[in-house]
Amino acid sequence: MGNCLKSPTSDDISLLHESQSDRASYGDGADPDQEPPPPYQEQIHVPVYHPTPSQARLATQLTEEEQVRIAQRIGLIQHLPKGVYDLGRDGSEKKIRECVICMMDFVYGDPIRFLPCMHIYHMDCIDDWLMRSFTCPSCMEPVDAALLSSYETN
């Protein structure tokens, strides 16, 4: 049996040209035989936590003790009451109208969270704040002590 070589077709030639142009576009001094990068690489999102208010680290860089403290904090935050902002039926009720964290006015239907000191904030704003510092941003009352004492009295 003899070796049978197939003569290149126009499709084969166009594929060859595309392959060479792709390599040239990735070139910039790189090895021409190296595979080009995939067109889409999924980015893995690693959350950032604050073991202390002034310190931010990736979740993968936390010690076991810091992970436990952060998990406890997340659990406490989830026990804080939440609701939806409602100005009141006639709108004349004297209520807080602004989240002091983001400085934006509350809008009817905004998800809010109540702290034991009775201050209210946008839920996203206060949850992020409490992950850094477990005190009320308005009155500086420790949230965990007030929350834990409310469980002891029940």
Structure report:
This protein is an alpha+beta fold. It has a domain at 48-146: Zinc/RING finger domain, C3HC4 (zinc finger) (Herpes Virus-1). The protein is built from 4 helices and 5 strands. The strands form 2 sheets. It has a 3-stranded antiparallel β-sheet, with helices on one face. Strands 1-2 form a two-stranded antiparallel sheet. A hairpin with a 5-residue loop joins strand 4 (111-114) and strand 5 (120-122). The longest helix is centred in the first third of the chain and has 18 residues, at 10-27. The chain is extended. Residues 3-7 and 12-27 have low confidence and may be disordered.
Number of strands: 5
Spatial arrangement of strands, main beta sheet: 3-4-5
CATH superfamily of the domain at 48-146: Zinc/RING finger domain, C3HC4 (zinc finger)
Which fold name fills CATH's third level, the topology of the domain at 48-146?
Answer: Herpes Virus-1
End-to-end gap: 92 Å
Q: Would you list the SSEs in sequence order as H and E?
A: HEEHEEEHH
Radius of gyration: 29 Å
What's the overall average pLDDT, rounded? 74
What is the beta-strand fraction?
5-15%
Just name the CATH architecture of the domain at 48-146: 2-Layer Sandwich
Oligomer: single chain
Total helical elements? 4
Silhouette: extended
Uncertain regions spanning at least 5 consecutive residues? 3-7, 12-27
Q: Report the biggest beta sheet as strand number plus sense, adding barrel if it closes.
A: 3 strands, antiparallel
Which CATH top level class of the domain at 48-146 fits?
Alpha Beta
Report helical residue fraction. Answer: 25-40%
Structural class call reads: alpha+beta
GO biological process, one term: ubiquitin-dependent protein catabolic process
GO cellular component, one term: early endosome
Region (Disordered): 1-42
Subcellular location: Cytoplasm; Early endosome; Nucleus; Recycling endosome
